């Protein structure tokens, strides 16, 4: 008995000694050191921004810039987490994810919205814009206001319009006359207007996510598609298509949208930061879209792709063939927006002349400045020359 007691005392003394001198202070049950990087994490606002295109496209670059600006302007208190290339949601599923609050921001193509909100069908109408001036006036004017207003009942808050560029046609057959489309299948963004557009040309529109375009062309599931220069180049669609027609028949842009309830619950200070960052990004993005499409157009011409530009008579024939689309969808779009579109088409064109690197521009700096977008109407990556009204030769570099 005495022996048992002695052994017990020795064990207890050993255990107490281990506690007092043997355990280190950095073990899990010791006090954690102060980590200043964790300070304020509970106050950090996370915004998940999902999109489906590559990072080096106009939209991809714009989202990254917006994320960086928000972080800088908020001193890190607002973080925009970017999910490109459809890694989180496809262009079909991102709409429902936004409404559920699983993500807070998206920038869908207009066509994706047109399938959900009828008024947005106006932007899918063939030859809806004649040039970039029409685009700018529509988005910054009454048409843009009415379109954003139409999103409100769907728990969506319209924040900005981002340009990408005019759409071109590609196929494995030459496309010059309306009858050249007969019996072909074209991948489209799911849109009733785009379906009707190809039906008017004797073809069939096949709705599919943007991430599937290359595979469907390569496998022969579809014969052709419509897209911007930048999307055709970055997705390497020239590898699976033989012909491209410069048609400018449609316009591809993006609506930057936020979950409405999420936006309304933000403090005014945070709303102001997001708005300011978005305004700067929009000016940058629209300027970049012109530059990138122009830059990648130069690259695309080096690829094994036979390119045809529509002649004026060919364009007129395309417009005549597609006119029934307007008659069908005008009642769905509504009289208010269609009336504004008629006003836009009635205005004389103020087409800017095409500009190449080193081209002389007979205009002053004030004429090149776009006050609505707070940006110059020239490409950011190129070198231009301009004659000011005082007669001085101005050389403009990196005009962003």
List strands and helices in order, with pairings.
Elements: H1 2-22, E1 45-50, H2 58-73, E2 78-83, H3 94-100, E3 105-106, H4 110-114, H5 132-140, H6 142-149, E4 156-171, E5 185-188, H7 192-200, E6 204-207, H8 213-219, E7 224-227, H9 229-234, E8 243-259, H10 260-264, H11 268-300, E9 306-309, H12 312-333, H13 335-346, E10 360-361, H14 365-368, E11 369-370, E12 375-376, E13 384-387, E14 393-396
Parallel strand pairs: 1-2, 1-3, 5-6, 5-7, 8-9, 10-13
Antiparallel strand pairs: 3-8, 4-7, 4-8, 11-12, 13-14
What does this 3D model show about the protein?
With 400 residues, the chain is α/β, with parallel strands linked by helices. The protein is 41% helix and 19% strand. It contains 14 helices and 14 strands. Strands 1, 2, 3, 4, 5, 6, 7, 8 and 9 form a nine-stranded mixed beta sheet that branches. Strands 10-13-14 form a three-stranded mixed beta sheet, with no helix packed on it. Strand 1, helix 2 (58-73) and strand 2 form a beta-alpha-beta unit. The longest helix has 33 residues, at 268-300.
Distinctive features:
400 residues; nine-stranded mixed beta sheet; disordered C terminus; alpha/beta; globular; single chain; three-stranded mixed beta sheet
């Amino acid at each position: 008995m005495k022996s048992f007691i002695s052994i017990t005392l020795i064990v207890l003394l050993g255990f107490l000694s281990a506690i007092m001198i043997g355990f280190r202070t950095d073990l899990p049950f010791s006090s954690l050191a102060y980590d200043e990087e964790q300070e304020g994490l509970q106050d950090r606002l996370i915004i998940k921004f999902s999109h489906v295109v590559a990072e080096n496209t106009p939209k991809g670059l714009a989202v990254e810039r917006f994320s960086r600006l928000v972080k800088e302007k908020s001193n890190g208190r607002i973080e925009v987490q970017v999910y490109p290339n459809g890694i989180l949601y496809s262009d079909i599923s991102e709409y429902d994810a936004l409404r559920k609050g699983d993500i807070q921001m998206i920038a869908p193509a207009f066509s994706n919205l047109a399938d959900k909100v009828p008024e947005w069908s106006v932007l899918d109408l063939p030859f809806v814009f004649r040039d970039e001036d029409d685009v700018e006036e529509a988005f910054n004017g009454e048409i843009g206001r009415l379109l954003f207003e139409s999103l409100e009942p769907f728990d969506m808050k319209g924040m900005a319009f981002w340009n990408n560029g005019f759409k071109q046609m590609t196929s494995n057959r030459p496309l010059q006359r309306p009858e050249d489309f007969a019996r072909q299948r074209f991948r489209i963004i799911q849109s009733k207007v785009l379906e009707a557009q190809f039906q008017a040309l004797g073809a069939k529109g096949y709705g599919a996510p943007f991430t599937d375009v290359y595979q469907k062309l390569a496998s022969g599931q579809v014969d052709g598609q419509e897209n911007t220069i930048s999307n055709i180049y970055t997705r390497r669609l020239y590898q699976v298509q033989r012909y491209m027609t410069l048609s400018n028949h449609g316009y591809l842009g993006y609506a930057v949208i936020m979950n409405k309830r999420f936006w309304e619950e933000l403090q005014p200070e945070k709303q102001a930061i997001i708005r300011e960052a978005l305004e700067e990004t929009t000016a940058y993005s629209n300027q970049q879209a012109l530059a990138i499409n122009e830059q990648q157009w130069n690259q695309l011409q080096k690829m094994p792709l036979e390119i045809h530009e529509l002649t004026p008579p060919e364009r007129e024939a395309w417009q005549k063939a597609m006119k029934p689309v307007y008659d069908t969808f005008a009642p769905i779009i509504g009289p208010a927006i269609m009336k504004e579109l008629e006003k836009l088409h009635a205005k004389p064109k103020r087409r800017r002349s095409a500009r190449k690197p080193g081209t002389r521009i007979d205009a002053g700096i004030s004429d090149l400045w776009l006050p609505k977008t707070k940006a110059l109407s020239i490409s950011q990556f190129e070198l231009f020359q301009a004659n000011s009204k005082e007669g001085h030769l101005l050389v403009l570099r990196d005009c962003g």
